[in-house]
Amino acid sequence: MKAVVWQGINRVQVETVPDPEILQPTDAIVRVTATAICGSDLHLVDGYVPSMVHGDILGHEFMGEVVEVGSEVRKVKVGDRVIVPFPIACGKCWYCQHGLTSLCDNSNPNPKLAEALWGYAGSGIYGYSHITGGYAGGQAQFARTVFADQNLYQVPEGLTDEQVLFLTDILPTGYMGAENCNIQPGDVVAVFGCGPVGLFGIMSAFLLGAGRVIAIDRFPERLEMARQLGAETLNYETDSVFERLKEMTGGRGPDSVMDAVGLESHAGGPGGVADAVKQTTRVLESDRPHALRAAIMACRKGGTVSVPGVYGGLADKIPVGAFMNKGLTMKTGQTHVHRYLDLLMGHIQRGDIDPTQIITHRLSLDEAPHAYQIFKHKHEGCIKCVLDP
Ligand code: NAD
Ligand code: ZN
Predict the structure, then answer these.
(1) What does residue 174 show for φ and ψ, rounded to 5 degrees?
(2) Alcohol dehydrogenase-like C-terminal domain spans which residues (predicted)?
(3) b or e along 14-53 (b: 16 or more beta carbons within 10 Å of the residue's beta carbon)?
């Protein structure tokens, strides 16, 4: 089959690789019908995530048709049309039982590697390096999925792939980002970053009762889309963001601030396990994390900072004095996708959310290297690419 593989920093290629096989009786094979590139994939391409190995298949936002199931799979059937949440849940551990599926204790077969490199182990994640289990990703024609009964989520009749694909990640991520803002009716929410996550964060903030959303980015087409969703916007290249945010909120600052940026896209070093220390040093020596610092400094006293943006390694230049003395609350994490699926599927079916509106590019799997380039550099007005394998 064809698959998108990581061949080093800033090197993404389409290659012919062996078809996936059932390895455990709880596995299922999915024929991928739609897959997308995520801002988190850019961190892999940029070399911020240690333990990528040459030839690893990328992709954690994918859906398709079940073509084979293992002998212990009961609920999922061949022919089912499913979406595949990016964090893998075993369904049985303490974390899964408490709805914290991105922290599952049993789906990451390499917890010691994760603890050694990043200080903690979360759930397994498809196509996201060996510290999250080394699972092959879904930017491919077929994918092996694990704990199928606990993870594969049936798509109801009458919905297109594009309507439901983002349930695998960025729609729940924007929603959890907004939920973590602890929005009270009428609140002002600021969202740093108008990529796919920030845009779904804006839609979700309004759904959860925000009175106003102020969105910050530098790309005109992304700011334009934020305005179409009802946000007021600031361009951080031309506006004094802190001053404007204060002026717009009676001198106080927003009630909550979302960092939907994370590690900023940037060309890195050679990558791989051996480079983990260098990567960490690079992050420490750089002036990061801009967006998280900005979120803490911009938020009103006693407010909430929500961080769906992904960080890795040790990025410690956080203004902890302001954070503590302003009495802020911070909530963050990889998204517990499973717990939002019924709710958000309902919003899609009722038309409260139209996830397709953020798609700017529809390309073939063969065009993935180009798709990565335009998504990374925000060229050609790219906001979100969907690949058809
Ligand atoms: P993206 O790269 O398309 O969007 C990021 C946006 O932030 C860009 O538009 C960029 O111009 C803007 N930006 C950069 N620096 C900024 C700054 N200082 N102030 C304001 N805006 C700034 O990526 P995306 O797909 O929207 O993902 C955003 C983040 O969310 C990434 O870090 C990604 O890894 C993370 N993410 C997290 C989860 C999760 O489970 N928590 C899931 C998916 C994605
Ligand atoms: Zn993602």
Answers:
(1) -60, -40
(2) 196-264
(3) beebeebebeeebbbbbebebbbbbbbbbbbbbbbbbbbe
For ligand 1, atom 7, which residue shows the shortest CA distance? 193
Q: Which of 61, 77, 72, 64 is nearest to 30 (CA)?
A: 64
pLDDT in tens, 53-97: 999 999 999 999 999 999 999 999 999 999 999 999 999 999 999
Domains of the chain: 2-169+336-388 (3.90.180.10), 171-332 (3.40.50.720)
Query: What local confidence, expressed as pLDDT, does residue 35 receive?
Result: 98
Measure 38 CA to ligand 2 centroid, in angstroms.
4
Strand partners, 124: 88
Question: How many Å apart are CA 52 and CA 66, to the nearest integer?
Answer: 27
Please tell me if the CB atom of residue 383 comes closer than 6 angstroms to any atom of ligand 1. no
Report helix, strand or coil for 352.
coil
Is the CB–ligand 1 distance for residue 261 below 6 Å? yes
Cβ neighbourhood burial of 331 (10 Å; 0-12, 13-18, 19+): middle
Q: Cα separation of 39 and 89, whole Å?
A: 22
pLDDT the model gives residue 48: 80
Q: CA torsion 124→125→127→132, rounded to 10°?
A: -50
Residues 6+ apart with CB under 8 A from 100: 336
Tokens for 271, please give them: 């990558």
Distance between CA 163 and CA 299 in Å, rounded? 33
pTM of the model: 0.95
Q: Indicate whether residue 193 lines ligand 1 (CB < 6 A).
A: yes
Burial class (CB in 10 A: 0-12, 13-18, 19+), 185: exposed
Report yes or no: 111 and 103 within 8 Å, Cβ to Cβ: no
Q: Measured between alpha carbons, how far is 89 from 123 in angstroms, rounded to an integer?
A: 7
**Alpha-carbon distance 56 to 271, whole Å?**
13
Q: Angle 220-228/196-207 helices, nearest 10 degrees?
A: 20
